[in-house]
Design goal:
Order of helices and strands: HHHHEHEEHEEHEEEEEHEEEH
Radius of gyration: 19 Å
Distance between the termini: 38 Å
Number of helices: 9
Strand content: 25-35%
Number of strands: 13
Helix content: 10-25%
Number of domains: 1
Structural class: alpha+beta
């Protein structure tokens, strides 16, 4: 999640040991493109000429997708559908495209009076802090709610907004989850629903919306407000690469900030083989009018 999480204080776990498939870019086709906006191909034309079959999607991993440039990542995202709204805990990792700076310029993409906020701990900017804190997301599909997994709350307590602590008071009221034997705090709640993609309006994405996070049970003014409409106005959207694996885009306001991936190994191993054979998966969101081809012919 942007995680500048500020989507939420980003960053994530390494998802798998490095191997050959994760050290080279995925072998999928892309439409030709140039640097200027006028040289970017139309998404509908890309999908018609270079549809992604299930076998193509199987070659994309949470690691090797980060070896692509942003236009290539965008072309993959535009050829995906939302798939089912996830349920349960997912590991997370954020990535900047190949050649990107790896830094978020808060002063350039944060809106309103937040441009002047000093969000630091020991002189380290929040993008670094996020990479230490954020471990993924937990989806509560039945409730239409999502929460972010924060591991190092002691570090979170050291962060200050100007002269105000980012988090203080009784921490025992913050809900927790245990994942692989590690205790994590569930913070930065968000609403979960199907909605229009800010990149590709031809079909819906799964939206993770922090705008009215203060309406949700368990909301804690600090630090949860930072992700909401009075803070950095975080909005994530995700689409499914294959079962258990989602590609996400994080926005601050309506400004794109970074890419992220979400992965659930149990779902991937349970449902992945069937998807690779058939290309069929449940769709909770509107898939648009352009038919997406996912199954190999024959």
């Amino acid at each position: 999640m942007r995680k500048l999480i500020l989507a939420p204080l980003f960053a994530m776990l390494s998802l798998a040991g490095c191997n050959r498939i994760d050290s080279t870019p995925p072998d999928v086709k892309f439409a030709p493109y140039g640097e200027g906006y006028a040289q970017k191909p139309d998404f509908a034309a890309i999908e018609y000429r270079f549809p992604l079959a299930a076998a193509d999607l199987s070659r994309i991993t949470p690691k090797n997708i980060a070896l692509l440039d942003q236009e290539q990542v965008d072309q993959i995202y535009a050829r995906l559908t939302a798939g089912p709204i996830p349920d349960g805990a997912f590991e997370g990792d954020l990535f900047f495209p190949k050649g990107g700076s790896g830094k978020l310029r808060l002063s350039e993409i944060a809106g309103g009076g937040l441009k002047s906020l000093a969000v630091e701990v020991g002189g380290k900017k929040l993008d670094f802090i996020g990479e230490t804190l954020w471990k993924g997301k937990v989806f509560y599909r039945g409730e239409g709610v999502l929460r972010n997994r924060i591991e190092d709350i002691a570090l979170l307590q050291k962060i200050r907004l100007g002269d105000q602590p980012l988090i203080e008071g009784d921490l025992s009221q913050i809900p927790k989850i245990s994942v692989d034997g590690k205790e994590q705090w569930l913070m930065f709640p968000a609403k979960l629903y199907c909605g229009q993609s800010l990149l590709d309006g031809r079909r819906e994405s799964i939206i993770i919306d922090y705008a009215f996070t203060d309406d949700l049970p368990g909301y804690r003014e600090m630090p949860d407000m930072l992700a909401g409409r009075r803070g950095f106005q975080v909005r994530d959207e995700i689409r499914m690469v294959r079962p258990g694996f989602y590609l996400g885009r994080a926005y601050l306001g309506r400004s794109f900030a970074l890419n992220f991936v979400l992965y659930n190994k149990e779902i991937a191993e349970r449902d992945g083989p069937g998807f690779e054979k058939t290309g069929v998966v449940a769709q909770d969101c509107w898939t648009g009018t352009q038919q997406r081809i996912v199954a190999q012919a024959g």
